[in-house]
């Protein structure tokens, strides 16, 4: 039962402040794509430096240049980095090789991944796959729905996309290992309290 | 006839030095994905600041959070920003809206784009589409080939992927508007001379 706090559209100090508030309730902390693209890998470095005992996810959304990008993330302190499932398979495979070498993990974001790649990804061992309804799908009026397909038992499942107290019961049907929560915690008046409520609600559903 | 110099896997000062050497021969300068992810949008800002009269491309490879990322790039001085053709269409459409508002342009990177999205992208007016053999496909042993499908007359075509003097004749058959060149210029002993030779060779083929 892992809650991953996603930090997006903040400055690095704001992100650190929010994560400090929710620290006791979340196991994993995600340095969001927007932080990496806005401030570079120092966002990963500073957040890992402040939370050395948390698992830090660099949501770098690699689509190419896998070795360079994954090494940047791992060298900056990330424990897990993300690659797009829609990328060429050679890129995903390269991410896996780099992660193995660094003894770190890969999260494969399944957003808009085609059938061919999905099929190949199903056979990958020891990865976290992320079912993801994107920000744009949520905010710009697309009608994405959760993909209910089962994932293999040798993979961990993360779910992301506007997750809040109200969406928990439906999401729990997918039996996720990792619940990626962004604004329901980060935009709450009291991020710690919000994280606690989500965690308790999730525990009751288990 | 546009040469776009792609700057990747360099520090910002190195990138500026290389671009200075090739300045007279290239029309467009690309702030590569690796610069954005390593150093953030200040890489765009510093390169535009040094080359205010060049068209600056931010290769931000947006896959989600289109409004935020494209505004970051345009506010940092980019004239063109990139979105992945493999992203949800709502993301690509949001990029187009933001670019229109800022009177800037969108380059759609067709790397690993599925049939559905390709079909929809074909109908988009006033965009640059980029046929792209990725770094990982070049370096990690995949066997990608150039997609020879014609693009509509109302779109501009850019081509990217290990382009050098030797690949020019084959590429020219696609009649590209923009030739994206990376290491054949940036890793040359004399980037200016290398850019000049590529430009002259391309001119002779025209």
UniProtKB/TrEMBL annotation, chains A, B:
<dbReference type="InterPro" id="IPR011060">
    <property type="entry name" value="RibuloseP-bd_barrel"/>
</dbReference>
<dbReference type="GO" id="GO:0004590">
    <property type="term" value="F:orotidine-5'-phosphate decarboxylase activity"/>
</dbReference>
<dbReference type="GO" id="GO:0019854">
    <property type="term" value="P:L-ascorbic acid catabolic process"/>
</dbReference>
<dbReference type="InterPro" id="IPR041710">
    <property type="entry name" value="HPS/KGPDC"/>
</dbReference>
<dbReference type="InterPro" id="IPR013785">
    <property type="entry name" value="Aldolase_TIM"/>
</dbReference>
<dbReference type="InterPro" id="IPR001754">
    <property type="entry name" value="OMPdeCOase_dom"/>
</dbReference>
<dbReference type="GO" id="GO:0033982">
    <property type="term" value="F:3-dehydro-L-gulonate-6-phosphate decarboxylase activity"/>
</dbReference>
<protein>
    <recommendedName>
        <fullName>3-hexulose-6-phosphate synthase</fullName>
        <ecNumber>4.1.2.43</ecNumber>
    </recommendedName>
</protein>
<comment type="pathway">
    <text>One-carbon metabolism; formaldehyde assimilation via RuMP pathway; D-fructose 6-phosphate from D-ribulose 5-phosphate and formaldehyde: step 1/2.</text>
</comment>
<dbReference type="GO" id="GO:0006207">
    <property type="term" value="P:'de novo' pyrimidine nucleobase biosynthetic process"/>
</dbReference>
<keyword id="KW-0119">Carbohydrate metabolism</keyword>
<dbReference type="GO" id="GO:0006730">
    <property type="term" value="P:one-carbon metabolic process"/>
</dbReference>
<dbReference type="Pfam" id="PF00215">
    <property type="entry name" value="OMPdecase"/>
</dbReference>
<keyword id="KW-0456">Lyase</keyword>
<feature type="domain" description="Orotidine 5'-phosphate decarboxylase">
    <location>
        <begin position="2"/>
        <end position="198"/>
    </location>
</feature>
<dbReference type="InterPro" id="IPR017553">
    <property type="entry name" value="3-hexulose-6-phosphate_synth"/>
</dbReference>
<comment type="similarity">
    <text>Belongs to the HPS/KGPDC family. HPS subfamily.</text>
</comment>
<dbReference type="GO" id="GO:0043801">
    <property type="term" value="F:hexulose-6-phosphate synthase activity"/>
</dbReference>
<keyword id="KW-0554">One-carbon metabolism</keyword>
């Amino acid at each position: 039962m892992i809650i991953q706090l996603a930090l997006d559209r903040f400055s690095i100090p704001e992100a650190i402040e929010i994560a400090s508030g929710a620290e006791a309730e979340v196991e994993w902390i995600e340095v969001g794509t927007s932080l990496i693209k806005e401030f570079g890998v120092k966002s990963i470095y500073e957040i890992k430096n402040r939370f050395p005992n948390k698992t830090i996810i660099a949501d770098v959304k690699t689509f190419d240049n896998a070795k360079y990008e994954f090494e940047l993330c791992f060298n900056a302190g990330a424990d897990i980095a993300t690659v797009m499932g829609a990328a060429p398979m050679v890129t995903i495979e390269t991410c896996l090789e780099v992660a193995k070498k660094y003894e770190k993990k890969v999260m494969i974001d399944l957003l808009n991944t085609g059938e061919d790649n999905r099929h190949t990804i199903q056979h990958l061992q020891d990865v976290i796959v992320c079912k993801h309804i994107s920000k744009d799908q949520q905010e710009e009026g697309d009608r994405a729905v959760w993909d209910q397909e089962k994932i293999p038992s040798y993979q961990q499942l993360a779910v992301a996309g506007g997750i809040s107290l109200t969406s928990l019961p439906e999401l729990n049907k997918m039996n996720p290992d990792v619940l990626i929560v962004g604004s329901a915690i980060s935009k709450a008046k009291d991020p710690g309290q919000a994280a606690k409520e989500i965690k308790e609600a999730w525990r009751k559903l288990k």
